Amino acid sequence: MTTSPVTGAELARSLEPLGVSVPSAVPTHWYNLAADLPEPVPPHLHPGTREPLGPEDLAPLFPANLIEQEVATERYIEIPETVREIYGMWRPSPLVRAHRLERVLGTPARIYYKYEGVSPVGSHKPNTAVAQAYYNALEGTTKLTTETGAGQWGASLSFAGALLGLEVEVWQVRASFDAKPYRRLQMEAYGGICHPSPSDLTEAGRAILAEHPDTTGSLGMAISEAVEVAANDPDAHYSLGSVLNHVMLHQTVIGQEAMVQLEEAGEPVAHTVFGCAGGGSNLAGLTFPFLGRNLREGTTTRLVACEPAACPSLTQGEYRYDFGDVAGLTPLLKMYTLGNDFVPPAIHAGGLRYHGMSPMVSHAVALGLMEATAIEQDDALAAGLLFARAEGIIPAPESTHAVAAAIEHARTVTEPEVVVIGLSGNGQLDLPAYSRYV
Predict the structure, then answer these.
(1) Mean pLDDT lowest for which of 4-13, 71-80, 285-294?
(2) CA end-to-end span of the chain, whole Å?
(3) What torsion, rounded to 10 degrees, do the Cα atoms 36, 332, 376, 197 define?
(4) Helices 203-211 and 219-231, interaxial angle, to 10°?
(5) Residue 325: its pLDDT value, please?
(6) Which residues lie closer than 8 Å to 173 by C-beta, 6 or more apart?
(7) Rounded Cα gap, residues 422 and 94, in angstroms
(8) In 3-state terms, what secondary structure has residue 308?
(9) Which of 3, 132, 371, 374 lies in the 20 to 30 Å Cα band around 303?
(10) Do 391 and 100 meet the contact criterion of CB atoms below 8 Å apart?
(11) Which pairing describes strands 143-148 and 167-173: parallel, antiparallel, or unpaired?
């Protein structure tokens, strides 16, 4: 079942604020790290000319507002009231003191987790999905195409499309499409259409299958397919769930809320913040507000990107320009990369199986403002079970990488300090990942 096309009048009505009360703790602005960085993020380059991109180069894929946000330098960008009202369905997300986990670990650290699993989809992804759908609908776009790994992003964009009157077509990495059937059903419940990638529906997909007929797929492959379809459909735009600057921007509601919530809990300073890292959106959303404060006020919060050892772009990749997809259809991005043809193993954390890393996150790491660590899958999922048995929440496989790094750190702490974990989503639809560990 797919969403029905809507009329212009219906679309306009879906974009108008409802006038409902939004909790005051929901941020009114997104935070833009670009305003505080000591050096600007290297520009995206045109794949043909290798010159910096102009707005006209991105217009076939993105609406004008998102293109402006991609290169914006102002510190704060106002959140449209319609978007903020939708955020109010689940935001602010809770910041929870992990008392039981502290007791199990016997640590003097005070551990908090920022839990994004309370969103309708169960992860942090709707924070940018709603914003991207809104700006596309505002410009008259009627269809969005996208890729997804584990499925949280595809489900989130389908959710946003349902609320804002947009058709959504998703290419899901085949490894996750086969392993996580309930994610596909979640997308379809919201009206989205989901295909396994690579598929025979696009030139990019057919070319990949001709060369690698048994491939498990990758996010880079799925991006190629989604970009191709959007570029060839005048009524469609492409929507990306991570990597690009405007996606990092939208996710900063997470860290802004966390900083206020820590203050309210009597914790004016966080000593160490851990976030999982695939393309960078959850990590950036949690850490960028803390990093901005470090840069403006001289605080020394330690920020740690926790990536899978099977896809270690930050810890083993090269910092250089590379394509965001396999087919070379995207702009060239300055990022830590394993190479756009890298196909990672079919690990359970499908949302972290990306060959590159957000240019903004990469820039922060290159400048020494953030550090990275790689976590083995067995260690991550074992930590997820320990967390579940102490705190009651089964983390998404992606989130377990941050949990594992935080637990390892907390076990070495000898003095009281504040540790924050980004719990990017719940694992209710990812339970097979834990089957060999229970």
Answers:
(1) 4-13
(2) 36
(3) 130
(4) 150
(5) 84
(6) 147, 148, 149, 197, 216, 217, 218, 219, 221, 222, 350, 353
(7) 11
(8) strand
(9) 132
(10) yes
(11) parallel
Rg (CA), the chain: 20
Peptide bond into 92 cis (omega under 30): yes
Q: Which two tokens stand for residue 98?
A: 């992990």
DSSP letters of 344-364? ----S-GGG--SB--HHHHHH
- Write out the two tokens for 163: 């609320």
Rounded mean pLDDT of 87-94? 99
Contact between 417 and 383 under an 8 Å Cβ cutoff? The reply is: no
Largest CA distance in the chain: 62
Report how far residue 11's alpha carbon sits from residue 220's, in angstroms, rounded to the nearest whole number. 32
In order, the DSSP letters of 308-330 are ETTS-HHHHSEEEEEESSSSS-S
Beta pairing class for 29-31 and 76-78: antiparallel
CATH architecture for residues 85-122+246-437: 3-Layer(aba) Sandwich (3.40)
Buried b (16+ CB within 10 A) or exposed e, 385-411: bbbbebbebbbbbbbbbbbbbbbbbbe
- The SS3 call for residue 151 is coil
Amino acid present at 204: A
Position 324 scores a pLDDT of 86
Q: What is the DSSP letter of 219?
A: H
Tell me the CA distances in angstroms from 219 to 149, 196, 351, one per residue in order: 6, 11, 9
Three-state SS at 261:
helix
Tell me how far apart the alpha carbons of residues 239 and 126 are, in angstroms, rounded to a whole number: 12
Joined together, the tokens standing for residue 417 give 């300090």
CA distance 384 to 437: 10
Domain ranges within the chain, ordered by starting residue: 85-122+246-437
CB 334 within 8 A of CB 416: no
Contact yes or no for 265/113 (Cβ under 8 A): no
Q: Output phi, psi for 390, to 5 deg.
A: -95, -40
Phi, psi of 22 (to 5 degrees): -110, 130
Contact by Cβ (8 Å): 368, 395: no
What distance lies between CA 35 and its chain's CA centroid? 21
Residue 185: pLDDT band with limits 50, 70, 90: very high
d(CA 26, CA 91): 6
Q: What is the dihedral of CA 229, 231, 234, 236, to 10 degrees?
A: 60
Q: Which two tokens stand for residue 436?
A: 């060999």
Per the model's pLDDT, the better-predicted residue between 108 and 231 turns out to be: 108
What would the two tokens of residue 190 be? 């919201």
For tokens 């809507």, the residue is 6
